[in-house]
Design a protein that fits this description.
- The chain is α/β, with parallel strands linked by helices.
- A 7-stranded mixed β-sheet has the order 5-4-3-1-6-7-8, with helices on both faces. The protein has a two-stranded antiparallel ribbon with strand order 2-9.
- The longest helix is centred in the N-terminal third of the chain and has 23 residues.
- The protein is elongated, with a radius of gyration of 26 Å.
- It starts with a helix and ends with a helix.
Amino acid sequence: MNDDPDIGAHLQRANELLQRVLSEVSKTPSTHAIFVGAGYVYAAAGLLVTGNEDRRSFDLDAEGLIEAFIDRARTIFADSRLLRVYWYDGARRRIHTPEQQSIAELPDVKVRLGNLNANNQQKGVDSLIRSDLESLARHRAISDAALVGGDEDLVSAVEAAQGYGARVHLWGIEAEEGRNQAEPLLWEVDSQRTFDLDFWKPYVVRRPVTVYEDGTPPPSREDVRFIGAQIAATWLSERGRQTLSELLPGRPYLPGPVDQDLLVEAERLLQRSLRGHGDLRRALRDGFWNHLQSQY
């Protein structure tokens, strides 16, 4: 056994230093942040509460919703402090809309904008989420991330944050049928929670919809589905099989211009507006797709 007093002194000082480091680490509070994919929130919450995923058909109380997210995180991450809420949305040329400006002015909220193309599709939002998640995790700015989204493209963002030791918790929105979040994303996160209809009701309010002037009820889903199939048959003869066959890989989504043409033609045939009736527009697309598939 080595009785050298210098070695003993060095060991004692090293032990004291280790104890001080451990003491400081134990006093350092955990930090969490909330990452909200606004596109997912509008589509899934709108569909759940109003039956329509078109954000033009309802109003979202973003301020109240963000406060609810913060309160829920405070309960879940009881020994942690909030860094901030990140709100990801799309805008043409990345210029804030008035609604996005009001959200950006809220305390503890950072609005991050991707682009919005001519078909109202968001571009670059998932890469923003990944960049922020990875950067914050790499610099140990957060220990936990609550992610509100459902796109499979977010898997890489989750992996990047986890690679630096952060835990990622997926928050979702109840779906009446099936799931509205990609399974690979559910598999990758550290935990997941789903917020039900009662949670969302206070923050999503349907806007007044068009009332038919003659007071007649809207057409049935079966009537609209039949019209969708009828339009598909007409378009096959007019536009050619090759043109429409190119749409099949994108099912159940239609390119924006094609979807708009389908809606306008259906309203012409029905002599009724389908605006504000998300369930009928889905029935229209179902009829269109079912006929196309039966031909290929």
